[in-house]
Amino acid sequence: MSASETSQPPADPSDTAIKTVRGSGITFSTTAVIALFTIFGILLWKIRSFFHDDALISLRYARNLAEHSQLVWNLGEYAEGYTNLLHILLVTPLIMAGIGPMLAAQFINAAAFLGLVVIAWRLAQSFAMSMGAKVAAMCAVISAPVLTWVFGGLEPVLVAALVAGAYVLAFRVLQGDNSLPLSLAASGLFAAAYLARPDALIGNFAMGLALLAFANLPVRRRIVHFVAIGSMSALILCGHIVVRHAIYGELLPLTFYAKVGVSTGTRLMLGLEYLRESLPLLPTLFLLPVGALLLRSTDNLKAKRAFLAASLVALISLCYITWAGGDHMPNARFFVPLTPLLVIIAVSIMAMMTPMMHTATAVALIAASALTATMLERLHADNAAVFGAIMGKHLADTYPEPLTIAVATAGATPFVAAHHTFIDTLGLNDAHIAKHPVGPPLGFAQEIPGHAKGDAQYVLRRAPDIIVFGPATGFTAQTPVFRMDFELLDEPEFFECYQLVTREIDTTPVLGLYNTTLETAGPWLHYYTRTCPKPS
Question: The whole model's pTM is what?
Answer without folding.
Answer: 0.92
